[in-house]
Amino acid sequence: MNTDSTKRQKQARVLRDFRKVHRLTGALLFVFFFVISITGLLLGWKKHTGGIILAKTYTGTSTHLQDWLPVDSLTKNAFNAIQDSLGKDTSMLTLDRIDMRPDKGTVKFLFVEDYIGVQLDATTGKVLHLETRRADFIENLHDGSILDRILGLDSGVLKVIYSTIMGVALLIFTITGFWLWYGPKRMKQAAASTTPTSPSRSAKPLRGN
């Protein structure tokens, strides 16, 4: 068996192995790839959905920080707003973070439970908007942190595991997909370069007069 034939067989075997890995990766992680693609698309469009995914940031009375109420007073107003509007027991609420927007004169209070969000006028403490943070829910789905949230894990270990698996899987999917496209082309080029050319016919000798 010549060297060229052996080389082509090795290339064909590598191509078959890559095809198996590509197919297996796609089959096993199809649902996760689907979720990541859909949630990534939604997150890219979140500010352009008319407030369906992400509510607009409302404008308060003043953008000067010296006019704003103390943070503890604003926090109390946010808890009271949820209790008055949704009838929830404030003792069961967990404040996730406070998002201050000096350019808008607004303070956002984001809660863990039910992805509740409250926007207050930082100057008057008046409720500007009460929302469900759908964008946060979609983001948690996208990066896998919803698993930690459901199981009550503060370490974020499941998010790290999920992100690692999906990152490696996407890398494998990309490499094998590229080789499934490039491999056959490379084999054809190699075969074409080693194909012997047919000898040209010798010219017939001229007959003498």
Assign a percent range to the helix content: 40-55%
Whole-number average pLDDT? 86
Structural class: alpha+beta
- State the strand order across the main sheet: 1-2-3-4
What summary fits the major beta sheet?
4 strands, antiparallel
The secondary-structure element order is HHHEEEEHHH
Structure description:
The protein is α+β, with helices and mostly antiparallel strands. Helices cover 54% and strands 12% of the residues. The protein contains six helices and four strands. A hairpin with a 4-residue loop joins β1 and β2 (106-111). α1 (3-28) runs antiparallel to α6 (157-194) and α2 (30-44) packs antiparallel against α4 (134-143). The model has no long low-confidence stretch (mean pLDDT 86).
List the topology elements.
Elements: H1 3-28, H2 30-44, H3 71-86, E1 95-101, E2 106-111, E3 116-121, E4 127-132, H4 134-143, H5 145-151, H6 157-194
Antiparallel strand pairs: 1-2, 2-3, 3-4
Helix pairs in contact: 1-6, 2-4, 5-6
Structural key phrases:
elongated; 4 strands; 209 residues; single chain; alpha+beta; 4-stranded antiparallel β-sheet
